[in-house]
Amino acid sequence: MDVKSGLFYVFSAVLLFSAFRVITARNPVHAVLFLVLTFFQAAMVWMLLKAEFLSIALVLVYVGAVMVLFLFVVMMMDINVDSIRHGFWKNFPLAAVVGVLIALEMAAVLMGGFRVIEEPHALAVAGNAAVEISNSKELGKLLYTQYLYPIEVAAAILLVAMIAAIALTLRQRKDSKYVSPSDQVRVKSKDRMVVHKMAATKPTLVEDLTNATDAETKV
After folding, report:
1. N or C terminus: which one in the chain shows less Cβ crowding within 10 Å?
2. Fold held by 1-78
């Protein structure tokens, strides 16, 4: 067994263990961290299969953005673990049936074996010189030539979804205070502060205090 095969088995074993811990960890934060480890191991397996673009995309998109967001949401929410486990045994039969079905389907695929194909050469001959082929470059050419229209449709759908999410979250509420940024820019100093002219204060004389005291005594 060569080094590549050994690394594949190591990454696969860690991936299976971390995926199992995702659904068995009692602490939600630990489950999210195990899921991050699962994505990293899957990225390493893709790297061994020379799918560098998919490997980097998995790390950047899922680990760098989605899972970090999930981690912060889980840490900020006060999750009651006991209430989550309340209906575990009630839904366990259905989950067991689905799990067994998926395991049987995977076993049917794996027992059939894989066709061994020759590894594509990483060098192409251009004239008399050998030119190295870039996996990411070839994938980019394929995406933006043959699959250009599906990419544009997916981009339009994601844009509509992003605009809809912004519109739903920025609804004006009665219990929230909102100030228009355009009004803040156009405001002037005289609109923020009003100066009232008042008479200057005068020192109180001792005679005035004595007269006021006598008047209160008579009353």
Report:
1. C
2. Four Helix Bundle (Hemerythrin (Met), subunit A) (1.20.120)
